[in-house]
């Protein structure tokens, strides 16, 4: 055998040896290393899991009164994996079913369609969960009708009826609470895929908005799992696992159910009052904070929605209305998502700017009817001249022209259109002290950060919009090419990256591009009230287990200090008190038995409504009380609500009436919400007496569910 043959034989031997080694290695991996994995896989083929979702924890107010709890319902569900195999995907079966239940076919059909199956703009009321989950079309079924459906499975294939736990939001004292409490719903495919880092079972429900989603990990609990081993005929041979569900923990909040209901009622009344005065009043918000620690005592947005509707059932039309501009977009939480110009409520910030710039707060200043700024005259409100006023009186009567002059003078000192390398920017820096432009950090979802229109923002805005304004004729429609808009586009093209004189004077009275949320303004006035501390607004106080054990408490979080001397704080307290005594809010608070301090705001809004009418002013009232020892900061805003005092000022007074137990010009201590003068700081005891008793819902015409609903088989045990 020659050398070449020996080499070939050696290569073949090495190849065979390597192959055998690889085969033995693979065999070892399958039988030893990966043995447990494959044993579990084999077992799963023979096993069936029955999941019992856990009872969701309560959400209670600061006194332990439930604001969200559970009750028992009876659901009729559709199994898409079965009806899709029927002729016309089960249209005949669904039509027969809706006739029996007294429902609308279009609503039910839409409700059982996956959102991904429907075209854009036609998804209202679609099923956000999975095809493999039973899709509930009503959870208030008559037990007799449900029994007929179960007994006639041949007539209603893919249709079943089962008891389930329903999330319930009591309407105690007329409480709504939709925007702060939120609601629950089914899992989406991304949830099941672990998009948020958690694992779920298909039959579970999770929080979708408000406190329900923020504290879902505590409220949800752990589902019970019973695993059956079955043979090839699906007969149960044994039970390999049986864990009972662990109920979710309770969330104790800083909210007061009485104050929340009163705040909602006062806000709704303010909107109606504005409409009665001829204003459009398309929405509003109100917030009450504890100035000592930032706790949210109540938070309301108008228009609102019924959180129970996501369980008892939304029609397709109701689902569309939640996000429709015609209905005011009820799903929008205006208290922490809506952004609005502050109007004269900003003048409390301007006081600090003026003091920092060297203006005496004890001096008097002229308040003419108008001030000439460049080529434009900036008028006082209703062009009224007020003579010479002290700074305190100027705040009380809300003189604008004083601030026009101060802001314009400081703009010139900073270099005008050719600013110094290090401008003083007293007004911008005063706003930064209040952390304007930043989120408050409240423990509610989707908060807006607001906008502080300073030099940095202006440059960023110009960078994004320069091309549009410099090519305005080519990029705008003919209807947008009015003389005013063409001139505005030209100015923005030439020096849109600079703070102009008009920007500076508008900024000083809360107009222009700076916008905040009502919650941010409440945080700002709470800081003035407590002497300068900026607290993070919080709703949660504690997580409590079902046995009463406190699992976690949430401590107040200090975000910063205004850094102002006591003399400046005292001046602001006195000036804002004067507003309610002899200033713009004197009429709204005439005869009120508790001393309050506040500031009206009537912010002009640029633009037009869908019907072509000019937008009305934004009505504000920002306040705190009692004036000498503040405990509460109360802010109300009504979008397109007109004057600050007549709309929001009266609404804030009604909230204070509820807090202090005021009737007319007297205080009745027995009616006060907090007899000790301040909200409770201790945790309430959540006793069994506050827990709901399970009961099958009363027979009645059910509604079509157009929202998430759990499909638990277990009854609520509370």
TrEMBL record:
Keyword Transmembrane found: yes
Residues that span the membrane, as ranges: 7-29
Positions of the Penicillin-binding protein transpeptidase domain: 284-649
Stored Pfam families: PBP_dimer, Transpeptidase
One GO BP annotation of this record: regulation of cell shape
GO MF term (any one): peptidoglycan L,D-transpeptidase activity
Membrane topology of this protein: Single-pass membrane protein
Keyword vocabulary terms for this entry: Cell inner membrane, Cell membrane, Cell shape, Cell wall biogenesis/degradation, Hydrolase, Membrane, Peptidoglycan synthesis, Protease, Transmembrane, Transmembrane helix
Residues covered by the Penicillin-binding protein dimerisation domain: 52-239
NCBIfam families for the chain: pbp2_mrdA (TIGR03423)
Entry similarity comment: Belongs to the transpeptidase family.
Protein name per UniProt: Penicillin-binding protein 2
Organism: Candidatus Planktophila dulcis
């Amino acid at each position: 055998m020659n050398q070449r043959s020996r080499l070939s034989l050696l290569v073949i031997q090495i190849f065979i040896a390597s192959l055998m080694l690889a085969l033995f290695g693979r065999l070892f991996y399958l039988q030893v290393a990966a043995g447990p994995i494959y044993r579990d896989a084999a077992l799963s083929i023979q096993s069936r899991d029955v999941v019992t979702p856990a009872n969701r924890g309560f959400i209670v107010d600061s006194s332990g009164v439930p604001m969200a709890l559970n009750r028992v319902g009876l659901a009729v569900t559709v199994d898409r994996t079965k009806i899709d195999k029927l002729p016309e995907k089960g249209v005949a079966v669904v039509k027969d079913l809706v006739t029996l239940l007294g429902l609308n076919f279009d609503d039910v059909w839409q409700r059982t369609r996956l959102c991904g199956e429907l075209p854009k703009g036609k998804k209202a009321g679609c099923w956000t969960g999975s095809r493999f989950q039973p899709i509930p079309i009503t959870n208030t079924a008559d037990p007799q009708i449900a029994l007929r459906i179960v007994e006639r499975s041949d007539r209603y294939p893919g249709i079943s009826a089962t008891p389930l736990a329903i999330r319930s939001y009591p309407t105690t004292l007329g409480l709504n609470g939709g925007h702060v409490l939120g609601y629950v719903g089914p899992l989406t495919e991304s949830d099941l895929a672990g998009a948020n880092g958690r694992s779920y079972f298909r039959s579970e429900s999770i929080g979708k908005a408000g406190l329900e989603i923020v504290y879902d990990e505590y409220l949800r609990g752990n589902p019970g799992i019973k695993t059956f081993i079955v043979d090839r005929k699906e007969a149960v041979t044994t039970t390999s696992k049986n864990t009972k569900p662990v109920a979710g923990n309770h969330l104790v909040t800083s909210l007061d159910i009485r104050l929340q209901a009163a705040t909602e009622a006062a806000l709704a009344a303010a909107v109606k009052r504005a409409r009665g005065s001829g204003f459009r009043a398309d929405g509003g918000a109100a917030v009450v904070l504890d100035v000592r620690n930032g706790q949210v005592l109540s938070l309301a947005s108008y228009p609102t929605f019924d959180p129970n509707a996501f369980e008892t059932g939304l029609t397709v039309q109701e689902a569309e209305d939640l996000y429709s501009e015609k209905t005011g977009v009820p799903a929008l939480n205006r208290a922490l998502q809506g952004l609005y110009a502050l109007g004269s409520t900003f003048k409390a910030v301007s006081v600090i700017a003026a003091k920092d710039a060297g203006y005496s707060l004890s001096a008097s200043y002229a308040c003419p009817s108008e001030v000439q700024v460049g080529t434009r005259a900036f008028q006082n409100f209703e062009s009224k001249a007020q003579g010479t006023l002290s700074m305190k009186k100027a705040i009380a009567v809300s003189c604008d022209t004083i601030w026009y002059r101060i802001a314009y003078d400081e703009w010139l000192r900073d270099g005008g259109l050719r600013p110094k390398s290090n401008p003083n920017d007293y007004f911008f820096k005063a706003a930064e002290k209040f952390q304007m432009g930043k989120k408050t950090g409240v423990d509610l979802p989707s908060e807006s950060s607001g906008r502080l229109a300073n030099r940095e923002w202006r440059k960023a805005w110009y960078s994004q919009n320069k091309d549009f304004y410099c090519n305005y004729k080519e990029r705008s429609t003919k209807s947008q090419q009015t003389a005013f808009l063409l001139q505005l586009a030209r100015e923005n093209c030439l020096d849109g990256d600079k703070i102009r004189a008009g920007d500076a004077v508008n900024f000083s009275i809360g107009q222009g591009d700076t916008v905040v949320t009502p919650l941010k303004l409440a945080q700002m006035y709470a800081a003035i009230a407590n002497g300068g501390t900026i607290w993070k607004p919080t709703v949660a106080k504690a997580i409590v287990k079902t046995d009463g054990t406190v699992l976690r408490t949430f401590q107040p979080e200090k975000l910063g200090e205004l850094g102002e001397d006591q003399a400046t704080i005292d001046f602001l307290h006195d000036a804002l008190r004067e507003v309610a005594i002899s200033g713009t809010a004197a009429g709204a608070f005439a005869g009120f038995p508790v001393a309050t301090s506040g500031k009206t705001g009537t912010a002009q809004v640029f633009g037009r409504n869908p019907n072509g009418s000019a937008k009305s002013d934004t009505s504000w009232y920002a306040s705190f009380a009692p004036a000498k020892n503040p405990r509460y900061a109360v802010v109300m805003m009504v979008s397109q609500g007109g004057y600050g005092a007549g709309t929001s000022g009266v609404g804030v007074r009604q909230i204070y009436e509820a807090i202090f137990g005021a009737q007319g010009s007297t205080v009745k201590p027995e009616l006060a919400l907090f007899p000790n003068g301040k909200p409770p700081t201790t945790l309430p005891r959540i006793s069994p007496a506050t827990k709901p008793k399970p009961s099958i819902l009363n027979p009645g015409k059910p509604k079509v569910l157009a929202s998430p609903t759990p499909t638990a088989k277990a009854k609520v045990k509370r």
